[in-house]
Amino acid sequence: MANQKEDTKKSKAGNVVADINVTPMVDVMLVMLIIFMVITPMLSKGVTVDMVRTYNPIPMQNADKEDAIVVAITRDGKVFLSPGVKLMPADQLPSAVKDLLVNRLDKTVYLKADARARYEKVVEVVDNLRAAGVDQLGLLTELVEQRKGAAAAAAQ
To answer: What is the domain count for the chain?
Structure first.
């Protein structure tokens, strides 16, 4: 009699479900999506400035490297030094840049200034970089986006 009860319990257990349960996978993917959405804006390198636009910019791929020395001047005249994105007064720039240039083969320093920054501030930063012994100074600019109509009118 006990064997019959065990047999009925086994038969009531039901069939094995062969479908894949995707709910946990979807939950994990949504959590990962939220994490990436929150972290991605924090990954932007350096300080965002509206750089000067030119018709013939010189491409400087080395400025995008992680160890590139980039000095940024914002619209309100604040000076930032990368790598590490440190806000500093312009008069402290020579000693900080000298420390970064020690034991480097590429001694190029890149300068990106906001288009609306005061010219006086840009000249002050360039003078301080020259005082630090910087011989190679790259000025970062952006390409001017021409309108199709304006380009066609200029061609005529």
So the answer is: 1
DSSP letter assigned to residue 52: P
Query: pLDDT per residue over 115-154, tens digit each?
Result: 999 999 999 999 999 998 888 999 999 988 876 555 544 5
Angstrom distance (rounded) from CA 71 to CA 126: 10
Give the position of tokens 């959590």.
31
Task: Label residue 35 left, alpha or beta by phi (over 0 means left) and psi (-120 to 50 means alpha).
Answer: alpha
The answer to whether residue 83 scores a pLDDT higher than 90 is no
Report the CATH number that the domain containing residue 120 is assigned in CATH: 3.30.420.270
Q: Which residues contact 116 (CB under 8 A, 6 or more apart)?
A: 50, 75
The answer to pTM > 0.70 is: no
Strand partners, 69: 109
Per the listing, tokens 């008069």 go with 91
Say which residues have a Cβ less than 8 Å from residue 148's Cβ, sequence separation at least 6. Answer: none
Determine the number of helices (DSSP H) and then strands (DSSP E) in the chain: 5, 7
Residue 106 inside a domain? The answer is yes
